Amino acid sequence: SVKGNDKKLAAEAATDYVKDGMTVGLGSGSTAEWMLKRLGALVKDGLNIKGIPTSVKTESLARKHGIPLTDFSKTATVDLAIDGADEIDGQLNLLKGGGGSLVREKIIDAAAEKLIIIADQSKMVQQLGSFPLPIEVVPFGWEMTKKQIAAYGAEPKLRKEENRVFVSDNGNYILDCSFGKMVNPESLHDTLKSMAGVVETGLFIGMTDQAMIGQNGKVEMIGD
Ligand code: DER
């Protein structure tokens, strides 16, 4: 219960940065769900925003909470994105994708003027990589892509959901790759991203402006 509360506190602290008239990138995951709930209440109280969801699941939750939605055919700017993470290091580099939404998350988070990450203390790490790195790959030739990635020391595992291969919102597969602690996550991302068949990795390097970290009933803000 305390843990859940810390996620809720972090999410609500981030929503303080949502101003009238904003287009807001809506993140995915359990911490982001607290953000959606809070934004729904603020919209009900008259806050005028439009959300761009980072997953089909977030889209349906946003609709449930009455948050008006838009998309990139209607808007060229995202004023603020609020998203979760699986790991956050001291430079606010992230490992994301535990929920399988990393491709749309990265498109929206990268487009945002400002990116605020919300999490509890359990996500803070010295070095990224203890959590398996999710890599989205094209289904065609995924076994070959897996082999290429394995050559870099990971054991890529095809993500399954209830014994069926997990298919992302974009119709792709996800390989969860245990690289272990990463000395240089940026160069690892660049190497992986250049491989044929790789759509995106869960390494979000140099993208985060601020993090709201909940711990023991308090929220610490990291970043500018
Ligand atoms: O997949 C992701 O990157 C999501 O942001 C998610 O992993 C965040 O985790 P949470 O459910 O603990 O917020």
TrEMBL record:
Pathway: Carbohydrate degradation; pentose phosphate pathway; D-ribose 5-phosphate from D-ribulose 5-phosphate (non-oxidative stage): step 1/1. It is an enzyme of class 5 (isomerase). Keywords: Isomerase. Substrate binds at residues 28-31, 83-86, 96-99, 123. Its EC number is 5.3.1.6. It catalyses: aldehydo-D-ribose 5-phosphate = D-ribulose 5-phosphate. The keyword Isomerase applies. The active site is at 105 (proton acceptor). GO terms for molecular function: isomerase activity. Signal peptide: none annotated. Belongs to the ribose 5-phosphate isomerase family. Catalyzes the reversible conversion of ribose-5-phosphate to ribulose 5-phosphate. PANTHER family: RIBOSE-5-PHOSPHATE ISOMERASE (PTHR11934:SF0). Homodimer. This is Ribose-5-phosphate isomerase A.
